Amino acid sequence: MKGIILRDIRKSYGRGSQILHGIDMTIEPGEFIVIVGPSGCGKSTLLRLIAGLETCTEGEIIIDGRRANDLPPQDRDIAMIFQNYALYPHMTVRENIAFGLELRGMPRRERHERAEAVARTLQLDPYLDRKPGALSGGQRQRVAMGRAMARNTSTFLMDEPLSNLDNALRVAMRTEIKQLHRQLGATIIYVTHDQTEALSLADRVAVFKDGKLLQFDTPEAIYDRPSNQFVAGFLGAPAMNFVAGDHLEGLMQGRDIIAGFRPEALSAHREQPAEFSWPARALLSEMTGADAILHCETPVGRLSLSIARKDLPSDPDNFWVGYAPEDALLFDAHTGNAIWPGQ
């Protein structure tokens, strides 16, 4: 297994078009790292730099203790899985999986045996003689994963591999990818804009914005202790609610703050429960099973609550939203940085 160290990675395309701004990351062998952020934040560019498909403007890439900046892609021993699968339509599943081994000169019988073993692991063995056009989206994605696995590498780079699948298939494939990671013990660096994938798959999450790394930590730490308001709002579904400090009681009076409340931290009440509440009117209730997401209008703006269906207000035009000051995450209204107790 290979560890990867990124030191002050910068990437520019000509004057005034800097994509990455000094990225520092240490990825341990066997870690599942998810890089998440909005479109255009530089996450796919970073993946291509690690793979050797592009070169750094500045900085160092260390792979398995060796400086890799000048190594060609084939010498980095890294497999990359693309968003569009990049399968050869005229080849069978067996031939697609084995293609990289053919380029390396492996004998035909040996590479087909290897392809068949990988296909069994991914439950693709019934489809070995089919071509990609006869497969579902999830099956094609597994073929792309199988081609990477067949190389017997210890590091996989995945660039939004599930974005072309419908929601049910994405959930199923997330489970398969996580199981595959446990089985192989490989290092995986996975790029996505889907924060649910980030929180459910990663050992650690790297949150990017505008080519900068804002936070690199466990999913639990990023959800519970986001470093700034952007990270807090980007991670979590439904998104965090933000309320200006002058609308609140019991929260750092006299300081210019923004308070963030996760939807599960707010509650709905028929009558005013206490001083820490606002009158509300429901706009939309989304059933998610036993729970519901309640979107409502209040004097402090629109809020989203994640509550049990049984707790939905009986009168949607006249109820109260309650909060506990200790459940608020606080952010500096000017810098957006998190404010923690004692600061």
Automatic annotation (TrEMBL):
Gene3D superfamilies: 2.40.50.100, Nucleic acid-binding proteins, P-loop containing nucleotide triphosphate hydrolases. Keywords: ATP-binding, Nucleotide-binding, Transport. One of its GO terms (molecular function) is ATP binding. GO terms for cellular component: ATP-binding cassette (ABC) transporter complex, substrate-binding subunit-containing. It is found in: Cell inner membrane. InterPro entries: AAA+_ATPase, ABC_transporter-like_ATP-bd, ABC_transporter-like_CS, ABC_transpr_MalK-like, ABC_transpr_MalK/UgpC-like, Mo/tungstate-bd_C_term_dom, NA-bd_OB-fold, P-loop_NTPase. Residues 4-235 form the ABC transporter domain. GO terms for biological process: carbohydrate transport. Belongs to the ABC transporter superfamily. This is Sugar ABC transporter ATP-binding protein. The lineage of its organism: Bacteria, Pseudomonadati, Pseudomonadota, Alphaproteobacteria, Hyphomicrobiales.
